[in-house]
User: Which sequence fits this backbone?
């Protein structure tokens, strides 16, 4: 039989690849990464059972297969766990070695509440000029949830907005920072790109503030990755450790006033490097912190805890004490991965996932939008101008199937022309009854009255 010319064989291979892509079983292609749905009703309560469990894009468990559990795991020989830990998900890890000392449902994808602001700071601190002045807007004034008190026409340096974001959990500060970084859409894409770079695949950011939106999530494991990065950088660690800051007056509207850091561990727990609290009805109480003792650093994260009988910050203190009691150098039950690293090949887990697993996002789209944020921030940081109130929408990139199709075509064409290239191709935790009592993160911080009463 006469062989087709090389060009004809290439064309036939290309057509076959496209046909294969169009008829392939859905199981052969990755599903899109979970996304938020702003059109869905705002969640008002935790899910009745465990939340979905996250995983790496290839289905493996980030940090080691031992962490593929909905229950408890600790290092061998660890002391008994402290009493009063009611958080549905938590994790304690040694920053120096990366060893996970103990965890409960470490990759459960919970609503993060304001602990997601750790990712906001981590994403925007490298790209926004601290001296850039952002003008307050009516949208800032009307932001839902906890506010630091930004007002229309106020002039706020980015450095102060970072402090307001972390110290007073200002959702209005989160809104202003997103505007300065190019807009909400670009900021969220950049946050998700940062999470992907850190291999925090359980995290899907839908707001820069952590206000609940359907589909938004993070995990005890991911929060530990975020706080580890923040305390490692002197600049962001200084933001977390700032005890008080001064909000500027706005002539004719408000007088200046002081804000205080809501992280009680800064004054109650020696060696605290920083932390962040959070609360919403759906997330309940969340908390993440890092501390140092005798040259050893630990991180702790808790999600879906209750205020009573033991508040989340006190639960964090007890878990930190427990972690410091674990001998230094202990072999971890898992490990905190380094940014961008690939997990070593491991055998498939023998523990089946109780819920759907998390798959990869389109990296090209996320990285491109992150670059847009950097460019927008550079434009706004140039000179001594004030950040504009508007924002430009981020351009969408091709979807993941296009990339998969291109990969299939390359493989077949390379084979035809004689080149070979290798391509890298539980127990359910019962729900905890809601606690009672007010929460500082849920309170609305209002500016002083415009016309203070007379004596």
Assistant:
């Amino acid at each position: 039989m006469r062989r087709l010319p090389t060009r004809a064989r290439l064309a036939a291979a290309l057509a076959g690849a496209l046909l294969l892509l169009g008829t392939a079983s859905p199981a052969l292609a990755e599903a899109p990464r979970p996304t938020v749905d702003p059109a869905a009703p705002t969640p008002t309560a935790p899910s009745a059972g465990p939340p979905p469990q996250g995983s790496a894009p290839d289905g493996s468990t980030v940090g080691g297969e031992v962490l593929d559990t909905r229950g408890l795991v600790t290092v061998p020989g660890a002391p008994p766990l402290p009493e009063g830990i009611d958080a549905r998900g938590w994790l304690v890890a040694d920053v120096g070695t990366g060893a996970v000392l103990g965890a409960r449902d470490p990759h459960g994808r919970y609503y993060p509440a304001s602990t997601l602001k750790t990712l906001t700071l981590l994403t925007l601190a490298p790209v926004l000029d601290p001296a850039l002045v952002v003008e307050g807007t009516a949208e800032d004034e009307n932001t839902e949830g906890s506010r630091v008190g930004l007002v229309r026409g106020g002039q706020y340096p980015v450095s102060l907005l970072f402090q307001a974001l972390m110290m007073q959990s200002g959702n209005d500060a989160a809104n202003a920072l997103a505007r300065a970084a190019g807009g909400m859409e670009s900021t969220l894409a950049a946050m998700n790109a940062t999470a992907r770079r850190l291999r925090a695949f359980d995290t899907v950011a839908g707001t820069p503030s952590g206000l609940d939106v359907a589909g938004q999530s993070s995990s005890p494991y991911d929060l530990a990755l975020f706080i580890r990065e923040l305390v490692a950088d002197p600049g962001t660690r200084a933001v977390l450790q700032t005890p008080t800051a001064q909000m500027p007056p706005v002539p004719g509207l408000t007088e200046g006033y002081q804000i205080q850091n809501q992280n009680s561990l800064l004054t109650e727990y020696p060696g605290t490097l920083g932390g962040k609290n959070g609360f919403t009805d759906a997330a309940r109480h969340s908390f993440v912190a890092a501390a140092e003792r005798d040259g050893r650093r630990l991180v702790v994260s808790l999600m879906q805890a209750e205020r009573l009988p033991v508040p989340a910050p006190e639960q964090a203190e007890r878990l930190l004490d427990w972690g410091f009691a674990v001998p230094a150098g202990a072999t971890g039950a898992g490990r905190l991965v380094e940014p961008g690293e690939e997990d070593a090949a491991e055998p498939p887990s023998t523990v089946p996932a109780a819920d759907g697993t998390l798959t990869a996002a389109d990296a090209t789209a996320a990285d491109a939008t992150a670059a847009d944020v950097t460019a927008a921030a550079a434009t706004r940081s140039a000179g001594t101008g004030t950040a504009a109130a508007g924002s430009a929408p981020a351009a969408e990139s091709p979807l993941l199937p296009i990339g998969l199709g291109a990969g299939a075509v390359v493989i077949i064409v390379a084979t035809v022309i004689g080149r070979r290239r290798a391509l890298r191709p539980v127990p359910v935790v019962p729900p905890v009854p809601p606690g009672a009592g007010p929460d500082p993160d849920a309170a609305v911080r209002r500016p002083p009255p415009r016309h203070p009463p007379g004596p």
Q: What stands out?
A: The chain has twelve helices and eleven strands.
